[in-house]
Write a structure and sequence with these properties.
The protein is an alpha+beta fold. The protein is 62% helix and 13% strand. It has a five-stranded mixed beta sheet with strand order 2-4-5-7-6. Strands 1-3 form a two-stranded antiparallel ribbon. A hairpin with a 2-residue loop joins strand 4 and strand 5. Helix 1 runs antiparallel to helix 2, helix 3 crosses helix 6 and helix 5 runs antiparallel to helix 6. The longest helix has 78 residues. The radius of gyration is 33 Å and the shape is elongated.
């Protein structure tokens, strides 16, 4: 699919530049034709003059001045039209590339969503059928139920991300902010993930009784998406650190992983809608490209900032700063 899109983009680019060159060539030809016509008219006027006329020199100068004014006029109009063509061409070209890029991202998003929806549904269906058809031991039953609940939570999280992204983009989300114990909220998110991933290595350093003005649902989604992103790009053996501190009248949340990290080129792009780190052909991690985009939108809703830096020796540090 990506090869077909690239080929389509190449064809559009070639056609676009061919049309642009044709327009520029037509503009140059228009200038040459008008200037030649101007010269011919001036020569005709000069031929009609009487050399014995006392004002002959003055009339010749006037004809040349008129010819020069016309040439300057044609040149000015040509430059203006050329500038308009170039500006319009650049705008159209950028818009076309953005549209193709967005279309590609939407196609990737739809495929990712389809996969992300089908996987938990298939696992849940299989687990329920197993429980229905077989009389299992209590331990095995609990394991299947736990796994099913995990997939249901994953499905619920995906649906919430999609719905929230649509609401925030459409400007229809009604936000009601309150003073929230951010320390307890982050601890709650950590506990939830610890229950879902009992073998994971998530550790916390959370300052007690840190309050922020915000909305519980949005802030929970912010923390959950950051933790989920850290888990997604880290191996099971690597530790993920979550910190909450008050620094110089600012509340700072950090989610630190030791995973693959993010290249400098992609550090700003990861917060774009549908953007996913890495190549579409080689990427193996799950996701829809909405998690970090929603983090950025939620942070903006709370007049906060978010940025990503490198962790040493490997991994990423996502830092969110709220005004105290």
């Amino acid at each position: 699919m990506m090869g077909a899109i690239r080929k389509k983009l190449i064809y559009i680019t070639i056609g676009y530049w061919f049309l642009l060159l044709y327009m520029v060539a037509a503009l140059v030809w228009w200038f040459i034709a008008l200037d030649k016509q101007n010269t011919d008219i001036a020569n005709i006027k000069l031929a009609e003059l009487n050399k014995n006329d006392k004002e002959y020199i003055a009339k010749v100068n006037k004809i040349y001045e008129g010819k020069q004014r016309k040439t300057t006029q044609y040149l000015g109009e040509g430059i203006t039209f050329f500038a308009l063509i170039v500006v319009g061409a650049v705008l159209v070209y950028n818009a076309t590339r953005k549209q193709i890029k967005l279309s590609t991202q939407q196609q990737n998003f739809m495929m990712a969503v389809t996969h992300e929806l089908k996987t938990p549904i298939a696992i849940t269906q299989l687990n329920l059928e197993t429980l229905q058809k077989h009389k299992l031991e209590e331990v095995k039953q609990q394991k299947l139920i736990t796994n099913t609940l995990k997939e249901a939570n994953r499905l619920n999280s995906l649906c919430n991300n999609i719905l929230l992204a649509a609401q925030l983009d459409g400007g229809v989300y009604n936000s009601s902010k309150l003073q929230i114990n951010f320390s307890d909220l982050v601890k709650g998110c950590f506990t939830t993930y610890n229950n879902h991933y009992p073998n994971g290595k998530i550790v916390t350093q959370i300052e007690e009784n840190v309050f922020v003005l915000g909305e519980v649902l949005l802030l929970q989604m912010l923390v959950n998406n950051l933790i989920d992103n850290a888990i997604k790009y880290s191996s099971k053996e690597e530790t993920i650190l979550i910190t909450v501190n008050t620094i110089q009248n600012e509340i700072v949340l950090k989610v630190i992983d030791n995973g693959v990290g993010i290249s400098n080129i992609e550090k700003n792009k990861v917060f774009e809608k549908f953007y996913r780190s890495g190549s579409e052909e080689t990427r193996t991690t799950k996701g829809t490209g909405l998690g970090l985009y929603l983090c950025k939108k939620i942070v903006d809703q709370h007049n906060a900032t978010i940025f990503v830096t490198d962790n040493k020796p490997s991994g990423s540090v996502f830092t969110i700063t709220f005004k105290a």
